[in-house]
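Give me structure tokens for this 190-residue protein.
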Amino acid sequence: MGIATAVLLRASIPILALFCAYLAPGTLFAQETKPPVIVVIDTQRIYRESTALKELQLQMDGQRSTYQQELRFKEQELRAVQQDLIRERGSLSPQVFAEKGRELEERVVAVQRELQARKRELDKRFSQGMNQLRSVLVEIAQEIAQERKADLVIEKGAVVLVKPELEITQRALDDLNEKLPRIESEAAQN
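Here you go.
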């Protein structure tokens, strides 16, 4: 490197530094980011207090109770058939007794299958209702977040402390109860 190049380089370093200092406030600091706007929602409280979910649970409890009454009636009927079979044992041939025993066992298995199918159906209806509730709640949370120009919606369970003005739970619950006062299960519609 020659003397002329070294002198030019030394002379250009302060100019380059001055140029960078001049540009930096305008370009680097102009992109300063603002802190995100955050709101907090307590979905567990909303689920507990939602009128739609309470109504759905009442529907499911009513259907479950009806199924249990039917099951008790069928159990009593099967016990009576079993007692009759035991009383008739001495008067029946071993083959006839075995055949009636198999028939009784098939009836018991059929009742158990019916019970399991009904339980699955109730679980499916409840799950569908919860999915409907969650979907409406997400829409409501999005609307509130847009109104407040929020960048982030956080579940209250993930937060230790929160300022009351950041919480949207009560508003979301009120909007949910207004938008979805009741969830109809398929059985209630049929």
